[in-house]
């Protein structure tokens, strides 16, 4: 067992205030029992101006002036004290970086109890040399947020169901906690049919400078969604056209795009599997198959460095003079997670050209 600290004694003090029996009216103050070594803890009980000391551990305290057998009380309450003491600390588990993650499923509902447990826990973690503390507060317990902020916690990120707060304990070390997710991930679908027509849309909501522009279907990747399936989904949602993912042709990295977040935009080549257009009325004003030459001639595309270059790359790909990246599913032993590694295979294994993703047809 760890040696006792002021903070733990504070815990006991809170405990004893909370539990009136058998120490009714008692207040607890720290008392250390160095001769007992590990496992010995001392509490001074002050009841009715009568000071008495008891020790739970191997030896027993003086008990006469309390009027009952402290031995028995001590033994009886040893378990009680330690179990209630547990309850006065927040349930938490250690992370691999020397920090602590609070168990959000076992938070007290009462803000006063939470205040006390949080303070006790902070002292406990500080004493144990813990570093970063992660505190997730579910929306159902949002009344705990101001308590945590008052104790020095900072917002880290929020989702619909919770807010995550953090606290960095070591004052002499810079905070090493990673920041919130820094990027949003978008996809654009370049879908070309056998008539060399590209699938384009007009957005319902756009800036006045983009009004009337025919553009590629674009959108955002959902949580836990693959780039390749997100691109197919977005094209289907906006235009009703089914498609098969071929390659990531290029990606753009931009900063301060939305609410200071950076943006990764993956331009994907897709092979159409159907041609009937059914637009999503919520997002899209119109969609159609547009001759590639006509699409390229639009002033906004022609004059835009990014889209002009994207079209050049796509055209190079059509002539097999460029090869994009295709996803290869694998599991890395580093994290054991199934994932997609995007790369191109120009010649294929053993010079087998059929293995190359660069020979795939577009339509
Ligand atoms: N739209 C375009 O012309 C271009 C898009 N991109 C990239 O495409 C990806 C996706 O971007 P976009 O399609 O432009 O996404 P967007 O900003 O149009 O958002 C997608 C959809 O989310 C909804 N939405 C977004 N913000 C909203 C708000 N504040 N209130 C209500 N609804 C909202 C709308 O339904 C919208 O159609 C990004 O990575 C972006 O960088 C890149 C260049 C041009």
UniProtKB/TrEMBL annotation:
UniProt-listed InterPro entries: NUDIX_hydrolase-like_dom_sf (IPR015797), Nudix_hydrolase6-like (IPR003293), NUDIX_hydrolase_CS (IPR020084), NUDIX_hydrolase_dom (IPR000086), Pre-Nudix (IPR040618)
Cofactor requirement: Mg(2+)
Entry's EC annotation: 3.6.1.13, 3.6.1.22
Record domain Nudix hydrolase: where: 182-312
GO MF annotation, one: ADP-ribose diphosphatase activity
Keyword Cytoplasm annotated: no
Catalytic activity: NADH + H2O = reduced beta-nicotinamide D-ribonucleotide + AMP + 2 H(+); ADP-D-ribose + H2O = D-ribose 5-phosphate + AMP + 2 H(+); NAD(+) + H2O = beta-nicotinamide D-ribonucleotide + AMP + 2 H(+)
Annotated signal peptide: none
Keywords of the record: Hydrolase, Magnesium, Metal-binding
Membership in a protein family: Belongs to the Nudix hydrolase family.
Protein's job: Mediates the hydrolysis of some nucleoside diphosphate derivatives, possibly using both NADH and ADP-ribose as substrates.
Protein name: Nudix hydrolase
Organism: Eutrema salsugineum (Saltwater cress)
Organism ancestry: Eukaryota, Viridiplantae, Streptophyta, Embryophyta, Tracheophyta
């Amino acid at each position: 067992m760890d040696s006792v600290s002021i903070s733990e004694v504070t815990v006991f003090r809170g405990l004893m205030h909370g539990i009136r029996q058998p120490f009714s009216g008692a207040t607890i103050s720290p008392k250390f029992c160095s001769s007992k070594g590990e496992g010995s803890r001392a509490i001074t009980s002050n009841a009715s101006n009568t000071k008495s000391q008891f020790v739970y551990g191997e030896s027993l305290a003086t008990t006469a002036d309390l009027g009952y057998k402290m031995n028995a009380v001590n033994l009886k309450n040893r378990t009680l004290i330690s179990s209630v003491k547990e309850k006065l600390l927040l349930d938490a588990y250690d992370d691999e970086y020397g920090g602590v993650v609070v168990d959000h499923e076992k938070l007290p509902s009462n803000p006063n109890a939470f205040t006390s447990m949080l303070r006790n826990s902070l002292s406990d973690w500080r004493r144990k040399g813990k570093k970063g503390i992660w505190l997730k507060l579910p929306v159902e317990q949002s009344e705990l947020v101001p308590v945590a902020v008052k104790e020095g916690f900072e917002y880290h990120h929020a989702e619909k169901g919770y807010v995550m707060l953090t606290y960095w304990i070591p004052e002499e070390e810079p905070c090493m906690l990673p920041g919130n997710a820094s990027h949003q991930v978008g996809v654009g679908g370049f879908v070309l049919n056998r008539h060399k027509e590209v699938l384009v849309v007009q957005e319902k909501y756009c800036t006045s400078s983009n009004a009337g522009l025919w553009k590629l279907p674009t959108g955002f990747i959902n949580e836990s969604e693959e780039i390749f399936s997100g691109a197919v989904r977005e094209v289907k949602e906006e235009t009703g056209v089914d498609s098969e993912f071929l390659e990531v042709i290029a990606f753009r990295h931009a900063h301060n795009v939305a609410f200071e977040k950076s943006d990764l935009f993956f331009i994907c080549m897709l092979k159409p599997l159907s041609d009937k257009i059914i637009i999503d009325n919520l997002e899209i004003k119109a969609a159609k198959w547009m001759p590639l030459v006509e699409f390229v001639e639009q002033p906004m595309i022609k004059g835009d460095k990014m889209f002009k270059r994207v079209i050049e790359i796509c055209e190079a790909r059509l002539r097999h003079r460029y090869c994009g990246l295709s996803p290869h599913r694998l599991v890395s032993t580093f994290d054991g997670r199934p994932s997609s590694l995007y790369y191109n295979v120009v010649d294929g294994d053993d010079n087998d050209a059929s293995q190359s993703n660069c020979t795939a047809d577009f339509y």
